[in-house]
Each structure stands twice: as structure tokens, then as C-alpha cells.
Specification:
By secondary structure, this protein is α+β, with helices and mostly antiparallel strands. It has one domain: Jelly Rolls (Sandwich). 18% of the residues lie in helices and 30% in strands. It is built from two helices and 17 strands. The strands form four sheets. Strands 1, 4, 5, 7, 13, 14, 15 and 17 form an eight-stranded antiparallel beta sheet that branches. Strand 11 and strand 12 form a beta hairpin.
Length: 291
């Protein structure tokens, strides 16, 4: 004859289950805390600040990168703080309009900034000329992922300028891959638009775009350290200084980025190969990206 559990036995079972659940939860929190601490240590010891020409450094793991009062899942972020140690005039990314602010996303291994990609989507403004203008060389590092449910269209990530004037632009074309532009010849009449291979969605990727402004001028791109594009540019680059944005643009309401960004690093010169590799290796180790 089967005997029912007594109240005491049931209480003991429930207590044991509670202890096990609490232990698993505490262990998960400990792992997350250790992972974040490791990322913070890698950030503080990275080569980014020691390489000359740095104009912008945005990342998500340090306490000084984001207001700590806003670091809860889904909270709107009104300021993403520049970490550039080479200047006292920091180029903080800002958004003052509620509903247009990107949000905090800590649903994966490290915190990210999430952009919703809506018709009137979320984006940050940057001070004019944060993104190098004129014929300045540049190297831009981006750690980002496109959302799995992102619509099949252009998703603008790093933007400088108006549509009517020369612009610099990094965008993800959902279906064709990462693209970046270089307007030359005195206006938008000569456009160099290198395009990489398509990228998997929901996967953090390191994208590096570079422009060498000394003859022979070239545009290059690397994904996870692998070079995918290297093309010659005939004329000097002509890019305006105003309307610098992250996650959207100033001329269209249907090209806002849907996905997450972990880090953006911009230099106002074309980095040497070993300098580029040093930063890509740092980003790969920090974000757990295989290169």
C-alpha cells in the first residue's frame, strides 16, 4: 500500500528545491558578474587609448559609459559617454527625446545598446565632426549584430552628413551585407560603395572600415580581421561635418538600425595594419568573437 508524503516530508522536498534553485540563480549571477568584470579589465587595459588619432570611443561595460540609474533591462539611455582619453572635449552620444532613445539590453553575455529600427526609430546624436570630415582618413571599428527579425532593407549604423551633401555612412543591408560609402569628386556624383558578404543575424561581428587619404587612396574593410574589400579611390574625399548620428539618419525615416551595438571606435586616420589588428584582437577577446 502506497503511503502519502507527510507535511514534514513535503516541506523538506520544497526546501531542498528552493535551495537548489537559489544556488543555480546565485551561480548564474556570479558567472555574469565575473564575465562583466573581465570585460571591464580588458577595456581598461586595451590599446585603444594609446593609438593616436582617436576621436570617439563608446562601449557598454564600464560604469562611466552609461548612467548606472539606466542600466536595467529595457531602460531608455539618454547619454552614451565617450571614453576618449586623448581629449577633454568628449563626443558623448545623446538623445533627449523620450521614445527615440535606444535601450539597455543585458539579455546576452555582456550589455549592449539596442535600437528598435522603427519607422521613426531610436538613434543617438554626436557632436559635429566626430566622424572625420573632408578628406581626413579614418578607421572605424564597430561591434554590432543585426536583429533576427530585422526587415529586409538598409539599416543605418554610423552616419555623417545630409543626403543633399556628401556623407559617410556604414549600413547593414539586410540581404546583401555591410556597406560603407565614400563620396568624392566634390559631391555625391562619385560614390564608392564597397559591399561585404552577407552577415548572419543575431551574431556579434567586428566590422572595420578604413580610408587612406594619401595617394594611392584606398578603401578597405575587414570582418572579424578578415579583409573582404580593398578598392582604389581616384579623387579626394569630400564629406560634411554636421549631422553625426548612430543608428539612423537625417533624411529618411525607414532606414533606422534594428539590432544591438556593443562598441564603436573611430580614428581620424588610416591605421597601420598592426594597430588595426591590436584593436580587433582586443574586441574579439572582450566580446567572445572568433577571429
Amino acid at each position: 500500500m502506497k503511503k502519502a508524503f507527510s507535511l514534514i516530508e513535503l516541506s523538506i522536498v520544497i526546501l531542498i528545491i528552493g535551495i537548489l534553485v537559489a544556488g543555480v540563480t546565485q551561480s548564474s549571477r556570479l558567472v555574469s558578474a565575473m564575465r562583466l568584470q573581465s570585460a571591464q579589465s580588458l577595456t581598461m587595459g586595451s590599446p585603444v587609448g594609446s593609438i593616436t588619432g582617436l576621436t570617439l570611443w563608446l562601449e557598454t561595460t564600464l560604469e562611466k559609459s552609461i548612467n548606472q540609474s539606466q542600466t536595467s533591462q529595457g531602460n531608455e539611455i539618454n547619454n552614451w559617454y565617450d571614453l576618449n582619453p586623448q581629449t577633454t572635449s568628449l563626443s558623448n552620444a545623446t538623445q533627449t527625446t523620450a521614445g527615440r532613445r535606444p535601450t539597455y539590453n543585458y539579455s546576452s553575455k555582456l550589455p549592449l545598446i539596442n535600437f528598435n529600427g522603427a519607422t521613426n526609430g531610436q538613434f543617438f546624436n554626436l557632436p559635429n565632426n566626430t566622424i572625420p570630415s573632408g578628406d581626413s582618413g579614418y578607421t572605424i571599428f564597430l561591434v554590432a549584430r543585426l536583429a533576427g527579425d530585422a526587415p529586409a532593407r538598409n539599416h543605418d549604423v554610423v552616419v555623417a552628413g545630409l543626403w543633399a551633401n556628401p556623407i559617410t555612412l556604414i549600413r547593414i543591408d539586410n540581404g546583401s551585407g555591410l556597406k560603407f560609402t565614400n563620396f568624392t569628386g566634390g559631391g555625391a556624383s562619385t560614390v564608392y560603395w564597397p559591399q561585404t558578404a552577407n552577415l548572419p543575424s543575431n551574431t556579434l561581428t567586428i566590422f572595420t572600415a578604413g580610408y587612406k587619404n594619401i595617394a594611392p587612396r584606398i578603401l578597405t574593410s575587414h570582418i572579424n580581421t578578415n579583409q573582404l574589400v580593398s578598392i582604389s579611390v581616384a579623387d579626394a574625399r569630400t564629406t560634411g561635418i554636421d549631422y553625426n548620428m548612430i543608428g539612423g539618419n537625417s533624411w529618411a525615416n525607414n532606414e533606422f538600425f534594428r539590432g544591438d551595438i556593443g562598441e564603436i571606435i573611430i580614428y581620424n586616420r588610416y591605421l597601420k595594419n598592426d594597430e588595426r589588428l591590436d584593436i580587433e584582437k582586443y574586441l574579439a577577446k572582450k566580446w567572445g568573437i572568433k577571429i
